[in-house]
Amino acid sequence: MKNHVLFCGISLTIISIAMTLGFAATVSAKPKVSKKPFGKTADGKAVEIYTLTNSRGAEARIITYGGAVVSLKVPDKRGKLGDVVLGYDSVADYEKHTSYFGALIGRYGNRIAKGKFSINGKEYSLAVNNGENHLHGGLKGFDKVVWTARSSVNAAGANLELSYLSRDGEEQYPGNLSVKVIYTLTEKNELKIVYSATTDKATVVNLTHHSYFNLAGAGNGDILNHQLTLYADRFTPTDGGSIPTGELRGVKGTPFDFTKATAIGDRIDQTDEQLKFGSGYDHNFVLRKRGNGLALAAKVYEATSGRVMDVFTTEPGLQFYTGNFLDAAIKGKNGQDYPRRSAFCLEAQHFPDSPNKPKFPSTVLRPGQRYTQTTIYRFSVR
User: What's the number of CA atoms in the CB half-sphere (13 Å) around residue 112?
Assistant: First the structure.
């Protein structure tokens, strides 16, 4: 009995030390997925929330409405879990607001000039919902629909597969577009997103993910001291309506040079026409990567928490947005305020207005082809 008590005491001591160091999850559960109701849309459609957990204790909560990541909990340098994305507590809030918190974006992420493009000589006119331009799929993009879900756990981690059929003519886009997106919370504390799509008629496709991140924790101040590295030597300058001019401009010597780790707020308020147009950073960066392989696109570090986020993608561009139009009047999870510049976005994508810029990488998808994209947000500590 004495030896048994001694053994138990040693075991409890080991677990206590592990918890202090942030390793408690390594002695506990396997990856898992659970689900429960999240509410209903205004037209009565049921919405579910899925919780993906890995064996290290990291957690992603994702709803079927818009495929939105409601929360993403990852450890800080002390091993304490914290939620690093903005979100809402109810379906009604996701329906009401157009902030795109954590959502899947499509058919076309970012902007199309004047909502018009042509394929094979035929012009298509889309809704203009951002000044005179089309933004993020229109009045009811992929962020405003209920996706069909299927979950699983395998060697890759905890998975949530979401599918949606965007019918011919939806938001005035041509073709029946069948879309599948797989979220995986891996054992490396990665949120991995794999997209695929097929069509029965030539169309344009540019899918992306729109989480707003604050590595100090959602609702914990601004993101101006976050250190950002972008693996991009050029960006696509825009006009006053955030439509690219077609130029690929070098970042060297400009406030857009993040080729070395730089605080987001160091130059955000400098006198610069492009910063004025976006009220800060809201621009597409041309990644150095070559081809369609997965490559490192960005790194972000927040000193207080010690959290590091690495972004990998197969896409040619990355939209960097600094929450310039967030407003403290917006109430998020648990009644939190989300004021201006309290979060940033890094949206892997093809370039804005590519359908009207022949020199940009093409976003046209034709029958018999398959659209694919992979983006990974990997979390660690320093």
Answer: 26
Tokens (6 digits) for 281: 């950073």
Burial of 145 (0-12, 13-18, 19+ CB in 10 A): buried
Catalytic residues: 210, 347
The correct CATH number of 32-381 out of 2.70.98.10, 3.40.50.880, 2.40.128.20, 3.40.50.300 is: 2.70.98.10
Buried b (16+ CB within 10 A) or exposed e, 347-369: bbbbbbbbbbbeebeebebeeee
Residue keyed to tokens 């009047």: 329
Nearest Cα neighbor of 181 from 263, 273, 56, 68 is: 68
What is the DSSP-derived secondary structure letter of residue 351?
Answer: P
The domain locations on the chain are 1-30, 32-381
pLDDT in tens, 129-181: 999 999 999 999 999 999 999 999 999 999 999 999 999 999 999 999 999 99
